[in-house]
Amino acid sequence: MTRKQKRLAVIGAALAVLALAAGLVLTALRDTIVFFYSPSEIAEKAIAPGARIRVGGLVEEGSVSRGDGAEVHFTVTDTAKTIKVVYAGVLPDLFREGQGVVVEGVLDAGGHFVADSVLAKHDENYMPREVADALKKQGVWQEKSGQK
Amino acid sequence: MIAEIGHFALLLALALALLQSVAPIWGARRGDAALMGLARPLAGGQFLFIAAAFAMLIALYVRSDYSVANVWQNSHADKPLLYKISGTWGNHEGSMLLWVMILAFFGSLVALFGSNLPVRLRAIVLAVQAWVASAFLVFILATSNPFLRLDPAPGEGQGLNPILQDFALAIHPPLLYAGYVGFSVAFAFAIAALIEGRVDAAWARWVRPWTLLAWAFLTAGIAMGSWWAYYELGWGGWWFWDPVENASFMPWIAGTALLHSAIVMEKREALKIWTILLAILTFSLSLLGTFLVRSGVLTSVHAFATDPARGVFILVLLMLFVGGALSLFAWRAPLLRQGGLFAPVSREGALVINNLFLTTAALTVFVGTLYPLALEALTGQKISVGAPFFNMTFGPLMIPLLALVPFGPMLAWKRGDFLGVAQRLFAVAFAALAVAALFAWLRWGGPVLAPFGIGLAAWVMLGALFELAWRVGAGRAPLGQVVRRLGGLPRSAYGTMLAHFGLGVVVLGIVSVSAWRTEVITVMKPGDSVAVAGRTVTFEGVVPEQGPNYTQTAGVFTAREGDRTVAVLKSAKRVYTVRKQPTTEAGIRSFLSGDLYVVLGDDAEGGAYTVRIYDNPFVTMIWWGAVIMMIGAIFSLSDRRLRVGAPRRAAPAAARVQPAE
């Protein structure tokens, strides 16, 4: 092989691997990303039941109740709209009524949200950023004046 | 007084760093030995002053001096001493100070051990190190000063976030930063080579030990973080493809590629330009990681700094260093002469393939981590990219790479014999298939690809062992000679073997826990039993307990195999008294076949609790594998040829030993 052919072989292999990676990335971006909505956005947009989404907001006061077995029901609100959530599993430590939460799962045909994961954050001062943004839109969120 | 001394020490360190940024490089341009000679004492002094500042901050934490804002926000008098000390870097300001201290530490190591470096190269390398240090010192002093006072001083501190009060997490940041920041040395060498317009095999020999050292620390740091997440967060997972994890994983992948390409450069003087580019990219990814974690741009479990001024500041630093380095590369790289021709099928060729797959894999992680941020910035649409994305992109790229790992070290330099190597590896392939078949039979009914993954892990592990055996001629030469050859092998050969073997062990752990984990979520009353992967787990009840700075409700569980009790596990819901913050302590028992992992959940009605139980087969292999990889790196590092900073002095020392024979 001449020097030029060797270089072409290396460049060819590099392009092949990159093309493979680009294909994988594009397919994965189409199939695996999860969109985030606030309860108001869910009310506005027609989101297909069965599509995987995230919903963020506050856990409505007094809404948490236990169902059969490990099932838990609660309502997520952005103060304008609400959505009912069903979750079977262990709630995170910082899950509390009145606190920010992000749930991931699918809408069922009845407009309930069936969550398979619930994220509350590791710090009691913390508000998931999407939740803070969603609440800001509703005008109920105030920036803390910092720790003074 | 202590805080003021610390603050003052930081200012002095900045002054020294600024001088170190300019004087040596000016000296190198003018050929002024005195100016170049300033670099070493300046680097040492810079480190001493930053270390002094850091020691002052630790002293403030140990004394619980709440007149200092940083201490008040993050500490509490009731905390055990260890967590008072680790609290120093458990927050934004302190961890940035730790970051820059480690940077200065590496700079002073180069100064200390660099006596055999060419004077000009050493001067420029230390100057480049000082550029980074100065920038981050300015960042700390301007936006994240840990020594700010509060007036009047509050009576009691706010306490450290309880999930950070943990031994693994106390040492996780220093290890991780030692890895991140350690790559700055390779970066500084790369910039120096570009400025000088000259690079040779000796350059690679100086760079490689520093890269290895950083890589070993980063491997340990990432493994430690993963282990912590596994036992502390109570989700039973060991890797979440969280952006903060990716932030440390990207420099690790790039650093792994750099380790391999530096070998080619050292041995064969090929891939010079590529190695320089990789050194720049690796440290750029470290800086990117620092930016992602420290600026608060991420929606993530770890991001606790949310001050936009800081974010913009680090972003500017990031663009300045990455942009500057890449521009310098574009301008100067054509000056570097290429050398060392090789055939596509050769050791060099194999290392090129390794680099190709690793950098592409790093790129997919990069896209998955930054795409949500870019999309939100451009369109306002919020998305999350999670494990499914990475499993679909990163995973497939690793399979061919793993399949090729055993070939690499067995191919000859310059021109290799692929078929010959394949023939020798036939027995290894057969053994790996047998292992795969065994697992398929033992764990019938799992995912179809799982035994294939186990086979791949066995292929990598056995391939590593076989390569060593083949090198010393095991089975062909008499035993005595084999043993003698084993003793005569360079330590770096053992390093390669251990690192590759460890990789196989990690893959084994990942495949088995991903494919065969059992999860049971149920509601249990005291006395209830549930079957989990061949064992019966009984909930015995809960007991209240009192810890040093927390109270907890502990659930006691017994695990039985048949009639025999094999483990008593305790999982607790803990409330830390200061922050009133609840945490969950998982009950974990490691068996040979894997972990039994029990989490006490919420209080259901009538004394019942939600309980989550996992059986995680071979999960500990993931961290043991990382430990083996790290030991491999240490072996390589202790190789005579590569011992940090002593590539030349070692030769006469070895010569002196020989006449004794």
Summary tags:
heterodimer, A: 148 residues, alpha+beta, 2 domains, 3 helices, B: 661 residues, Four Helix Bundle (Hemerythrin (Met), subunit A), 21 helices, 63% helix, 12% strand, disordered C terminus
- CATH topology of the largest domain in chain A, what is it called? OB fold (Dihydrolipoamide Acetyltransferase, E2P)
- Lateral arrangement of strands in the main beta sheet of chain B: 3-4-5-6-7
| Uncertain regions spanning at least 5 consecutive residues of chain A | 122-126, 143-148
Please mark out the parts of chain B with pLDDT under 50 across 5 or more consecutive residues, or reply none.
300-306, 644-661
Average pLDDT score of chain A: 80
For the terminal residues of chain A, how far apart are their CA atoms? 72 Å
Question: Quick check: average pLDDT of chain B?
Answer: 88
Q: Report strand % of chain B.
A: 5-15%
Largest sheet of chain B: 5 strands, antiparallel
Number of helices of chain B: 21
Whole-angstrom Rg of chain B: 27 Å
**What is the level-2 CATH architecture name of the largest domain in chain A?**
Beta Barrel
The residue fraction in helices of chain A comes out at 25-40%
Can you count the beta strands of chain B? 10
What oligomeric state do the depicted chains represent?
Answer: heterodimer
The fraction of residues assigned to DSSP E strands of chain A is 25-35%
Computed structural class of chain B: alpha+beta
CATH topology of the domain at 1-163 in chain B, by name, is: Four Helix Bundle (Hemerythrin (Met), subunit A)
Architecture blueprint of SSEs:
The complex is a heterodimer of chains A (148) and B (661).
Chain A: H1 3-32, E1 34-37, H2 39-44, E2 52-59, E3 65-66, E4 71-77, E5 82-88, E6 100-107, E7 113-119, H3 129-138
Parallel strand pairs in A: 1-2, 5-7
Antiparallel strand pairs in A: 2-4, 2-6, 3-4, 4-5, 6-7
Chain B: H1 2-30, H2 33-37, H3 39-62, H4 69-74, H5 81-86, H6 92-113, H7 119-143, H8 167-196, H9 201-232, H10 243-268, H11 272-295, H12 308-332, H13 347-379, E1 383-384, H14 387-404, H15 418-424, H16 426-442, H17 449-471, H18 479-488, H19 491-516, E2 518-524, E3 529-532, E4 535-546, E5 550-561, E6 564-576, E7 581-585, E8 587-591, E9 594-603, E10 609-617, H20 620-637, H21 650-657
Antiparallel strand pairs in B: 2-10, 3-4, 4-5, 5-6, 6-7, 8-9, 9-10
Helix pairs in contact in B: 1-3, 1-7, 3-6, 6-7, 6-8, 7-8, 7-12, 8-9, 8-10, 8-11, 9-10, 9-20, 10-11, 10-13, 11-12, 13-14, 16-17, 17-19, 19-20
